[in-house]
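Fill in residues.
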């Protein structure tokens, strides 16, 4: 018989929760029926790519927030890459005085070939979590 079996070094991962699928056939996509149902319920609005992009934005934002909390306003692309930063996914960009200013929600920075710099929080626009008494809903 010409049937070929491939030995995979990694188990496939559940498309919904990302857990390794240890049991079952190698083409299994979900760890269980609840994940399969959740995934397909969401698929209606092509939300797979939307969720992926949102999770990348969320990670980028966490990295930028972390840098700001350490008062780091400039960092090399290699270091950013090591932190898991993804340059492809941003919320907006604009040319300002010959530089590209990039926004990830309310955090903005300039981008060059080798680094990002002048990382800062935009202060103008009120945020969704703003309260009339001036306090903020913290994200965490
Ligand atoms: Zn799962």
């Amino acid at each position: 018989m010409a049937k070929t079996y491939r030995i995979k070094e990694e188990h496939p991962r559940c498309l919904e929760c990302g857990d390794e699928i240890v049991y079952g056939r190698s083409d299994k996509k979900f760890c269980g029926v609840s994940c399969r149902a959740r995934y397909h319920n969401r698929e209606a609005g092509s939300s797979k790519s939307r969720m992926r992009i949102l999770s990348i934005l969320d990670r980028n934002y966490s990295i930028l927030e972390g840098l700001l909390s350490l008062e780091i306003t400039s960092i090399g692309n290699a270091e950013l890459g090591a932190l898991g930063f993804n340059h492809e996914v941003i919320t907006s960009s604009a040319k300002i005085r010959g530089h590209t200013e990039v926004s990830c929600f309310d955090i903005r920075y300039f981008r060059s070939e080798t680094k990002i710099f002048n990382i800062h929080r935009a202060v103008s626009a009120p945020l969704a979590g703003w309260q009339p008494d001036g306090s903020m809903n913290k994200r965490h």
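Strands lie at 75-76, 92-96, 99-104, 107-111, 115-121.
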